[in-house]
Specification:
Strands 3, 4, 5, 6, 7, 8, 11, 13 and 15 form a nine-stranded mixed beta sheet that branches. The longest helix has 40 residues. By secondary structure, the chain is of the alpha/beta class. The N terminus is likely disordered. A hairpin with a 4-residue loop joins strand 9 and strand 10. The protein is built from five helices and 15 strands. The protein has two domains: 135 residues, Glutaredoxin (3-Layer(aba) Sandwich); 81 residues, Immunoglobulin-like (Sandwich), CATH 2.60.40. The termini are far apart. It is 28% helix and 28% strand.
């Protein structure tokens, strides 16, 4: 009897050890995934400052239908090519896809969207096939490869928009805030009078460290040639779009009394997307 108890006790110990190993294994997996995601998100934003007309790499990316998306071939028929680099577990990516899909349906005779997974931990082509079907996406979806390694991925999603000349006309880290913003960007690159330009769009979010939002804040954007004042809405946001992308200084004109902000340290340029302005008590 005592021997059977010992055997039972040993069995329980083994079971406990196995459970601990499984838990640690899962924790290790999620810790690794979180670490990789944090590293990606901490990378620099796409940098186009070296050249106004930076050529896009002539990528060749495998798609879920077994074909290949090659940039030079797409530009034979399209005025605009959108390259969206996403991850299947990325919430903002998932949120912006329906907006992109709606715009794509309106302009797919003039534009192409190629969405590819940059996920380092989970994705395979089978995952992408399932993702495309579940999200009802009609534009091409596939996998990232070395043909776009020269492009900076500053986080998910990262979007590069290529004009008819094969130049990168727009780059952003972070999701588009609305379908209207995405539509404005792509349509500005369409039309028979297009000669090539660098465009940018920014959404400023003003908040404090407790994530309280601040409406009616006046944001001043300025340079030698630009002098614009934006006002945040009830959501604490203000948007700016320009077809003449350049470095702009940022300041807040009506900070609440007793507060300071990081706006003076922000310079916006060719890297479009969400810009966080944090205000704090002195």
């Amino acid at each position: 009897m005592e021997q059977n108890k010992k055997k039972g006790g040993a069995g329980r110990v083994i079971l406990i050890i196995l459970i601990v190993l499984v838990v640690l294994g899962a924790a290790g997996y999620f810790a690794l995934r979180a670490f990789i995601q944090s590293k990606i998100e901490s990378m620099a934003a796409p940098d186009l400052s070296s050249s106004f007309a930076q050529k896009a790499p002539d990528f060749a990316l495998p798609l879920t239908d077994g074909s290949e998306a090659k940039l030079s071939e797409l530009l034979q028929d399209k005025e605009v090519v959108v390259l969206n680099i996403f991850a299947s577990w990325c919430g903002p990516c998932e949120k912006e896809f329906p907006e992109m899909e709606a715009v794509y349906e309106k302009y797919k005779d003039k534009m192409e969207i190629v969405a590819v997974s940059g996920d380092l931990t989970l994705d395979s082509m089978d995952d992408m096939i399932k993702y495309k079907e579940e999200h009802g996406l009609t534009f091409p979806v596939g996998m990232k490869n070395e043909s776009i390694d020269s492009l900076t991925v500053g986080g998910f999603p990262t979007t590069y928009i290529v004009d008819r000349n094969g130049n990168i006309a727009y780059a952003r880290t972070g999701a588009f805030q609305s379908g209207e913003e995405f539509e404005k960007v792509v349509t500005s690159l369409m039309g028979g009078d297009y000669k090539g330009k660098q465009i940018a769009s920014y959404t400023f979010l003003v908040r404090d460290k407790d994530n309280n939002l601040f409406p009616d804040i006046q944001i001043h954007l300025f340079s030698d040639t630009v002098d614009e004042i934006l006002t945040t809405g009830e959501d604490g946001m203000a948007a700016y779009f320009t077809e003449d992308a350049q470095n702009l200084n940022v300041e807040i004109l009506n900070l609440p009394e007793g507060y300071t902000s990081n706006a003076d340290g922000i310079t916006v340029g060719l890297d479009s997307g969400l810009k966080m302005i944090t205000i704090v008590k002195k």
